[in-house]
Write a structure and sequence with these properties.
By secondary structure, this protein is mainly alpha-helical. It has a single domain, classed as Up-down Bundle (Formate dehydrogenase/DMSO reductase fold). The chain has 13 helices and 6 strands. The strands form 3 sheets. The protein has a two-stranded antiparallel sheet with strand order 1-2. A two-stranded antiparallel ribbon has the order 3-4. Strands 5-6 form a two-stranded antiparallel sheet. A hairpin with a 2-residue loop joins strand 5 and strand 6. Helix 1 crosses helix 8, helix 8 runs antiparallel to helix 12 and helix 9 crosses helix 10. The longest helix is centred in the middle third of the chain and has 32 residues. It is globular, with a radius of gyration of 20 Å.
Length: about 325
């Protein structure tokens, strides 16, 4: 057992789970963010139908990541929950509202506008809250002897507010490119015109965050700017992915824009993780200091290694079954 670093294995598993959540639930949150901008109830039907078969399965990765954190790194829970109680509550409330809206909107007649609002507002709130949590993580937490000693609004700053809106824009891009891939006609053409605007907006946001982050956290500044760093390959790859979206939209590709937008998020996500690595509870505690006992990690690891392939299999099968375009008659 001593031959294996279970903390590192768990860090990879949880990092993978959170990455899958961001990539997969990101686009259906993005659909909800774009939802109130659509032009008719028929378009809103198509937008919701495009994610209806997959949205709840996408959130499985959030559950896996959260459960893994509790099991493998209990210090993360003991610090993050009191420090981030409000944005986490807002995120969960948003996810609940949009989940209920999925079920009720198709059955509603007089109250359909209410469920439209619940779907779009819930999507926006969940996305913004996730971005605010990212901003708070970059800022770090007030800790004393592994205990959070700050106030309930320590997470709230101009930086966390900005990162919240940055993630809303990013998810909107994922949602737009997803709908370009899944729809046809006027709705698709509108999103093809909207996507380049979102790309340029996100590039501007990334530039602001890239300048602002080192000003907030000197450790991150040192990691990025002390000598020649291979980390710079990640923002370069994200930029190339963004330019690929513009090229693909201009040349009429329908699948490539979505794949390239996933690339933007993947490289930005890896850049964030490596900026703090191996710190998991900033500013002081690395993943080994935050870990549970190796025996506990091993016991739970056996269960996760069984569950994750099953989740991957049914996720792949679901996307394969619903791989076509969506229309008023369903998938084809």
């Amino acid at each position: 057992m001593d031959a294996f670093d279970f903390s590192l294995i768990w860090a990879v598993i949880i990092g993978f789970g959170l990455m899958m959540y961001v990539l997969m639930d990101g686009f259906d949150l993005g659909v909800g963010i774009l939802y109130p901008l659509s032009h008719s109830e028929a378009e809103r039907d198509l937008m919701m139908n495009s994610v209806a078969p997959v949205w709840d399965g996408n959130e499985t990765w959030l559950v896996l990541g959260g459960a893994g954190l509790l099991a493998a790194f209990p210090l993360v829970y003991s610090v993050f929950l009191p420090a981030l109680y409000i944005p986490i509550f807002l995120m969960l409330a948003g996810l609940i509202f949009r989940g209920v809206a999925f079920e009720f909107r198709f059955k509603a007649k007089k109250s359909k506008k209410v469920w439209n609002l619940a779907f779009s507002a819930g999507s926006f709130l969940a996305a913004w809250s996730q971005g605010a949590v990212v901003g708070a993580f970059i800022q770090g937490f007030a800790l004393q002897d592994k205990v959070f000693v700050g106030g309930p609004f320590d997470w709230l700053s101009w930086f966390s507010v900005f990162t919240g809106f940055a993630l809303v824009l990013g998810y909107a891009l994922l949602g737009a490119t997803w709908l370009v891939m899944k729809t046809e006609g006027d709705l698709q053409q509108w999103l093809q015109r909207l996507t380049p605007k979102l790309v340029w907006a996100i590039l501007g946001v990334f530039l602001v965050v890239s300048v602002w982050t080192p000003m907030i956290e000197p450790v991150i500044a040192e990691r990025w700017f002390a000598g020649v760093s291979l980390l710079w390959l990640l923002p370069i790859a994200a930029l190339l992915s963004a330019l690929t979206i513009l090229y693909a939209i201009k040349t009429g590709h329908q699948i490539l824009p979505f794949l390239a937008s996933l690339g933007v998020f993947l490289f930005a996500y890896l850049g964030l993780l490596l900026s703090r690595w191996p710190i998991i509870v900033p500013p002081d505690y690395d993943l080994w200091q935050a870990a549970s006992a190796p025996e506990s990690q091993l016991f739970l690891l056996l269960g996760f290694l069984f569950v994750i392939p099953i989740v991957l299999a049914y996720t792949a099968w679901t996307y394969w079954v619903f791989r076509g375009k969506v229309s008023s008659q369903g998938y084809h």
